[in-house]
Amino acid sequence: MKHYNNSILAFDFAGTAFIDSLSSSFPIMLINNDARPFSPLFLPDLKKRCEIIEPYFTKNNVRFKNQDLKLSLKKAVEKSEFSEGFFSKFFLGNFNL
């Protein structure tokens, strides 16, 4: 995938594409719809690698506050700078980080 300066990968489900993207240097934002709960052992590291936004629901529609979405996008870009350590730990098994 070509790297674009203004790209952010956004997911609403933590499936295969989401997991694969964690090894990239792209900023990542996950909309946590609680479809796939995360282990408390893994969640702190995941929050260091990508921004997880907590939506609210009305009539089965996912909703966000504009300010929360703007802040999450900014944080996703900042967290992408730490992708190498996440990659080493979770994809190469270097748990000493």
Question: Secondary-structure blueprint of this entry?
Answer:
Layout: E1 9-11, H1 16-21, E2 28-31, H2 43-49, E3 51-53, E4 56-58, E5 61-63, H3 66-79, H4 83-91
> Reading side by side through the largest sheet, how are the strands ordered?
1-2-3
Low-confidence stretches: none
Shape: globular
- Using the CA coordinates, give the radius of gyration: 14 Å
**Main structural class:** alpha/beta
Distance between the termini: 27 Å
Helical residue percent band: 25-40%
Overall number of domains: 1
Q: Main sheet?
A: 3 strands, parallel
Distinct helical segment count: 4
Give the strand tally.
5
Strand proportion, as a percent range, falls in 15-25%
The overall pLDDT, averaged over residues, is: 84
Order of helices and strands: EHEHEEEHH
What does this structure look like?
There is one protein chain. By secondary structure, this protein is α/β, with parallel strands linked by helices. It has one domain. 37% of the residues lie in helices and 16% in strands. The chain has four helices and five strands. It has a three-stranded parallel sheet with strand order 1-2-3. α2 links the parallel β2 and β3. The termini are far apart.
